[in-house]
């Protein structure tokens, strides 16, 4: 039996032997002619004498061609039989022929009743064998082959229906003819709401008229267009899509359809304009918040050592260059860059409208980048997993009971507070240079027998006039500092009161910088110093991921979200307000207290690492770049413009968050010996966590921190590269911190030196 292959576009279809069903009540020359023609053509042939047997045979064999005798109505109703066959699903692609009588003595009758009944065409009786054969051959290469191709379309539509990309097909006149389920899901419409609607009737795009003209001018000449545009969902939400629109050439060599393929824009998908017709700008950034080369050198150290005007000017240019070249590219950052570029060539009304759009974008929650960890760098991967997630789901029945039932230290349980005038000489000497960045917190830790927070707190708070602002006595402040310090765990190698004192010192140092002083109010300074003091109170020496995996009471209390930071803030206010002896807020006016409390909580929560890049992104886009633009445009002396950037409530919040974040993880910017000591302490705390995870059968959050195999230099370099460099570049560009950046550069060189020698320890062997 002959088998043929049919070409259908790029598909090659395999067509089996055709099957023909002859429905004739009686055998005659006409039925015999078709039977002979089937044999000659190599088609399988079945014969049915009644409508019932015909229907049964068809449902069993699924014939390609059915030929029904319509010459003698006394035997059966041919049209009724055709209608019965057409009601079956199997008949969708079947060709049905009606054999009619030849009338020479009357006018030709209409074929419409036959078409309405479901017949494909009619055959005027002609019992000639060759006439029957020619009819079958014409059917094979005409209607049958067309139906065969349509049948193959079912597989194509199945692919479209299951595709995860949104697909829309329109006519040449832009009338919607098909959308797939992915399109319905993305846009929020049901297919019935769209079919046969013109695109202009469905407000699913936010493209400007000139942009639409650009797209149409491309696709109407038969070229595909690819790019990025904004679509509007049924509920009014705007989404950014990467779209490809393809014109489909049909009958007469003309465009008969347009196929649109869309997917939601993703920060990892670079959008390129590939259309030959338009030269649209494309954001082809090469990096997006990814692990960067640490050798980039955030600045030339030699240019920062001079404190003269030339040195400052040179550093300012360096800062602006760093800000503009930063690769912290969340999707919103790209949007802002596109709008900024568009403003340059826009008329004044458009530029002003874009300014308003930028203001909205800079003050809403749109700045979190989509991050992927570096699989090839386990140190970075583990740090990101350990610090920026809320843990894996519990794999163990073990429960980690933490501090929720602990008895916290209160004022009455502590020894009598010391006075600022009673500080021993050794401690006084250890605090002599506390206003300098190179102040040695470990010397104070040793002199105070691991109680540096009370002493340093008394001195710094006195310098900033905290008691006067709060209207509280020095004895109340002393009691408060003692209560807070007593609730830090001295058993933690890193997260203890020495870390708190170190963050308090860095906070005070940043508050003394001129740009910061221009920005913040007295209440902001008070809030920053208090937040630094309490930001890790009652820290268990374990990460949020550990607590979530262990099912700790705190993780349950705070729904696995910012567990520790929420606990630090809440406990700080509980400890402060439960006893009048240490309640530094008791004499404040209610509204001022509420404002202060809000700022403290916001700053403590900002130390949570899951939103690290969100905070840094906002700071760069809302503060660094506008200030750099003012300086580049020669507006250094325009105090009002700078004040507008610095003093807006939204930007002050960003600055306070950035300040405490930088203070919290400033260890790599400390003098080398302090940097090394802090690296050893945090590594030991992570080692202890890994040990406990393995003992309890919990998921190991940071497997690279195994005390037997971990390379501390590698872990430090990964942390610096992923979290520190961009953040301190941005903070330095704002606050002018040449000494910190010099220490950071030197410490990077130190860790690289150890790593280059394949040493895994803190210091080289003697």
From TrEMBL:
This protein's UniProt keywords: cAMP, Hydrolase, Metal-binding, Phosphoprotein
Residues at the active site: 495
Ranges of compositional bias, category Polar residues: 301-312
UniProt pathway annotation: Purine metabolism; 3',5'-cyclic AMP degradation; AMP from 3',5'-cyclic AMP: step 1/1
CDD domains: HDc, PAS
One Pfam family per UniProt: PDEase_I
Cofactor annotation: a divalent metal cation
Residues reported to bind AMP: 495-499, 536, 664, 716
GO molecular function ontology, one term from the record: 3',5'-cyclic-AMP phosphodiesterase activity
GO process terms (BP): cAMP catabolic process; cellular response to epidermal growth factor stimulus; positive regulation of ERK1 and ERK2 cascade; regulation of DNA-templated transcription; signal transduction
Entry binding sites for Zn(2+) 1: 499, 535-536, 664
Binding sites annotated in the UniProt record for Zn(2+) 2: 536
Top-rank taxon: Eukaryota
Positions of region (Disordered): 297-322
The PAS domain, residue ranges: 152-222
Subunit architecture: Interacts with RAF1. The interaction promotes RAF1 activity.
Family: Belongs to the cyclic nucleotide phosphodiesterase family. PDE8 subfamily.
NCBIfam families documented for this protein: sensory_box
Protein name listed in UniProt: Phosphodiesterase
